[in-house]
Design brief:
Length: about 220
Amino acid sequence: MATYIVMLGPPGVGKGTQAKILAEKTGLVHVSSGDLFRDNIKNQTELGRVAQSYMNKGELVPDDVTIAMIRERLSRSDCQAGVILDGFPRTPKQADSLEQMLAEFGSEVNYVPFVNADEEVLVERLSGRWTCRANGHVFHATFNPPKETGVCDLDGSELYQRDDDKVETVKNRIQVYRKQTAPLIEYYREVGKLVEINGAQPIEKVTAELVKALEK
Ligand code: AP5
């Protein structure tokens, strides 16, 4: 049976960083809603145009658009063994839709690592983040610096700072998270799927805690 892991946590806590590491360790596919939106923006699609207007303000893209995008992605053949979802679901409606989608595939969400850290940690991580233009590889000026400033270690492409990592937008993203996404913590706790992970530790320690929790 396929395995579905949902990475839950506030903006900048390290969901994407850990999802990529876990995907390599497990062979599961990493599906990031934010990366899918950014690909659409890069390719100048209609979906990208709609998404950008919300992302620039730090608001959530409407549920219907987001759910349709994820449904399409999860239906592809590379997702059959399961997926590590990063950034989805983010509202109760998205969580309900995910449950329905997975039920159609004869599956369900298995684990929900909730990675958390204080707001000052999130702001520090987002303000120092550098992302690779070609493939979305992520670095941090202090905590995970590239070998050469401004250049991706993995594919040599340019590193840039995301528009929504400006301090004002980050503050709004954190507010939006608290209002619209935080209710999912209780939702998944009640069904016994939540695993709490201390995201304030260095990257390798967070990975070690995650791996240990998932092995149980
Ligand atoms: P999205 O791209 O999903 O952004 P996010 O959830 O805000 O998460 P981030 O990507 O900012 O952070 P992260 O937790 O992955 O941290 P990372 O690993 O990069 O969404 C962007 C926007 O798209 C949303 O605002 C919304 O508009 C839209 N959207 C997306 N999904 C949606 C949905 N489902 N519904 C509606 N709208 C949606 O790490 C951050 C930095 O910290 C990096 O520099 C990294 O190197 C560093 N770092 C990571 N871990 C550590 C550590 N342990 N110690 C030190 N540094 C670390």
